[in-house]
Design a protein that fits this description.
Rossmann fold, 94 residues, single chain, two-stranded antiparallel ribbon, alpha+beta, 40% helix
C-alpha cells in the first residue's frame, strides 16, 4: 500500500534545521560578529511573534528594505515561517 506523505515546505525545513545543534556556528561577519544556530532560532522566533502581533501572516506581503546585513536573514526567515511573502529591497537599487 502506498503511504501518503505530507510535502515538506521551505519553512518546515528551516524550522527543523534551527532546532538542531544550537551552539553550532551559522554565520560569521567581518568584525568578528558570530551567529549560532541557536541565535538564529531565537531571533527568528521573536520576529515571528512580532509579525503575528502586527496581524501579518499567511497571505501578507511585506517589503524588506535593508542593506546587506545578517539581520536580513533573521527577518526573511521569520517572514517565511509565517507563510507571508516578502520582496527584498536594497536602498542603493534603482
Amino acid at each position: 500500500m502506498n503511504e501518503l506523505h505530507r510535502p515538506l515546505y521551505a519553512p518546515d525545513l528551516l524550522v527543523n534545521a534551527l532546532n538542531q545543534d544550537a551552539r553550532r556556528p551559522l554565520l560569521e561577519v567581518p568584525g568578528g560578529e558570530r551567529l549560532t544556530v541557536g541565535d538564529m532560532r531565537d531571533s527568528t522566533s521573536q520576529y515571528v511573534q512580532a509579525l503575528a502581533a502586527l496581524g501579518l501572516g499567511k497571505g501578507s506581503r511585506i517589503g524588506l528594505l535593508s542593506s546587506n546585513r545578517p539581520e536580513v536573514l533573521v527577518v526573511a526567515n521569520a517572514i517565511q515561517v509565517t507563510a507571508a511573502a516578502y520582496v527584498p529591497l536594497h536602498p542603493m537599487a534603482g
